[in-house]
Amino acid sequence: KEMLDELFESDFQEAVNNAEYFCKSNALVINETAKHVIIEMVFQLGIGNVNKFKNMIKALQEQDYKTAGDEMVNSRWYKQTKERCQKLADVMRKSES
């Protein structure tokens, strides 16, 4: 269990670091809730795949969290893991409140 915990922590920290890089490289100034969604996306999909969400990135650059959530659902990812994607998209949409 200890080894698994360490492995998870290492993977999670890598996702956090990649999400921070993602935000900086795309000039995103977003709130903490949206950052947490991005971290979860990077953890699940990897930074390379999250970089493919061009319309979501554009919406986040404009701090349009509703459209960003819509763009998350408008993806192949949604078709693959519908429930998880829907939950994260809903969080993203509500993050501007």
- Give the number of DSSP strands: 0
Shape: globular
Question: Tell me about the biggest sheet?
Answer: none
Percentage of residues in DSSP E strands: under 5%
Rounded Rg: 13 Å
The termini sit apart by 39 Å
Low-confidence stretches are none
Helix content: over 70%
Mean of residue pLDDT values: 95
Structural class: mainly alpha
What is the overall number of helices? Answer: 7
The ordered string of helix (H) and strand (E) elements is: HHHHHHH
In words, what does this structure look like?
- By secondary structure, the protein is an all-alpha fold.
- The chain is 79% helix and 0% strand.
- The chain is built from seven helices and no strands.
- The chain starts with a helix and ends with a helix.
- The mean pLDDT is 95.
Can you describe this structure in just a few lines?
With 97 residues, the protein is mainly alpha-helical.
Keywords:
mainly alpha; single chain; 7 helices; 97 residues; globular
Helices, strands, pairings?
Blueprint (H helix, E strand, L loop, with lengths): L1 H24 L6 H14 L1 H4 L3 H8 L3 H9 L2 H5 L1 H13 L3
Helix pairs in contact: 1-2, 2-7, 4-5, 5-7
